[in-house]
Each structure stands twice: as structure tokens, then as C-alpha cells.
Amino acid sequence: MKHTLLILGGAGYIGSHTVAELVGRGCEVVVADNLEKGHRAAVHPKAAFREGDIRDATFMDALFSEFGVDCVIHFAAYSLVGESVSDPLKYYDNNVGGTRAALSAMAKHGVRNIVFSSSAAVYGEPEEVPIPEGARLHPQSPYGASKLTMEQMMAWCARAYGMRYVSLRYFNACGALPGGLIGEDHAPETHLIPNALYAALGKSPALEIYGDDYPTKDGTCVRDYIHVCDLARAHALAAQYLMDGGQSDIFNLGSGEGFTVKEILLAAQEVAGRPIPHKFVGRRAGDPAKLVASNGKADRALGFSPGITSIRDMIASAWAWHAGHPAGFAGYMPDW
Ligand code: UDP
Closest ligand 1 atom to the C-alpha of 121? Predict the structure, then answer.
């Protein structure tokens, strides 16, 4: 029997790649997105699409009444660390309030499985690297705090309402669907790899590198990059795990390997085949020096390990998207 999956926030960056993965696996896919950040064109045409906000109980009721949902995958949240510091209530409202509303609708309609988009931001400044799932949870921003609260809410709801959840704590998502059919399109863009490629394309005057005085090998921050198509596959495996009766659990999703900002800049220059203008500026508030995942648990329980392990390949797929579609989804309709 075909499974039906409801993807909340399925028009966003990681959501839309997950929708493409699930459609490719022959699942019935329903996408709900308020299109505040997401792009309608990013949603695979074989997925049903309903525009609405997960905080709207009437909208959620209608969704669950229309479709017999086997599993929810929940991406619908704000994700800008800096913005969350200046406007925390915006994050509590959408991230925490939205998850509360989604869980409430699930409980009402007897939907028991949820895969949740969490973040390495729940750890804050780590005490040990690579970071295992059992590490201290000490978020440094309202964004990270909201993700931790969402995880805890799910754990309590699982106990109370017989639900099961998988929380996936991503490290640094990057890249795009091979061939550059869809990719990352945020406004404003805050992430390192797209910002480096924007500077390569002349879309911005220079990449700003936030700090070169960190206690790392070259003074710039170390991050663990994982390809968005690998993340998409991990969500499909997690949904299958729950639908097969797997117990609630939490997994890191990362490559287990760290790269400095300078190393990413060098790799991006090689991929783009041109020098990338850049300048060093002050540290960005809340950036830990080094975040690298301990990633064995997802392999043991879900059979997931990243397939794209070369940072050059990751950046090359992002480059195909950005160079092919410098205006992102504006005026663009992918030919699936
Ligand atoms: N970074 C940077 N310039 C940028 C964007 C990011 O130097 O324009 C740095 C940032 O300080 C961090 C790393 O690149 O050390 C990755 O940042 P990103 O925002 O991509 O992801 P995060 O680690 O914050 O989730």
C-alpha cells in the first residue's frame, strides 16, 4: 500500500528536496506551506499542494480530513539565528506555536508519526566535538531554543497521545538537486556557500567572512556540511522507520567532517573557476567555533550515511543551481 506523507513547509529549501525524494520513491505526497518563505515552483508537480498556515486550526483540520495521512514531516519554521535574537517572540509564535498547532491537529485526527526538522543549534557551544546526540543541550539563540522546545513538546505529546517521532538535528545543509533543477533561494540569504557563490556571480560585491580569530586551524569557524539530497533521503528513511513501528528517537545528520570558512571559500573558487572577492569582518554573534556531528547513530538505526561526501561535489551542485538561475525561483518554473 502506498503511504501518504504530509510535508509541512514542503515549499522551502530542505522541504522541497524531500518532496522530490518522496515522489521519486512513489509515495503520495501532500505539501502544506504558507509561501511566506517557500516557493510554489519548488514543489514537485506530482505532490498535492495546499496553501495555508500550520497555526490555522481550520486549515489543518481540512488537511487531515481531506487526506489519510500516515506520517507528517515538519519543516515549517523560521530559521534565521540573528533575526531570532532581535525578535524572539516571532520564533516562539511560528516555531513553537506552529508545532503546537500541528501536534494538536495530529492528535485530533489520530495521526501518530512525525519526523521533525531540528538543528545542531540545540547544542550551542559544544563541550566535545564531534557532538553526540547525548551532548549537553544549551542553545545560544531563540532559534535554537525554539527547536529544543519543539523537540520536548513532541516527546511529551508522544507519551500522552501515543505518537512516535524522529527528530533530525541537521548540521549545515548545502547543495541542490543534481542538474540544478531546484535549489536554495532565501531572502535574505545568510548562509556561507550561497553567499560565496553570489559573490562569485557578482550578485554581491564580496563575501564577508565573520571572524578570523577563532581557536581553529586557520582562525575561521569549522562547520559540518551535508548535502540537501542526503538530508532528503534521511527524512524518507526516518518516515519509513516510524511507519515500520520504530521507536521515537533523535539523530544527528552531518558528514562527520569539518571545514573552515576559508576552506569553503577555496573550494568555491575552484568550483566557480574564478577568484571570489572577500573581506574579513567581525565575528557574528552566537557562532560557535566548531560544530561537527558524531553521525554513527543515524547509520545504526536508520541505515543512513551521507552519499555525497566531497565538499567540492556539494558546492558544485549549488553552483549549477545558482549559476543557472541567478534570480532563484523568480520567473522560473522547473521542467520536471
Ligand atoms: N559565514 C560567513 N559569511 C557569511 C555566512 C556565513 O563567514 O556570509 C560563516 C559563519 O560565521 C559560520 C559559517 O560561515 O561560521 C557557516 O554559517 P552559515 O550561516 O552558513 O550556517 P550556520 O553554521 O550558522 O548554521
Answer: 25
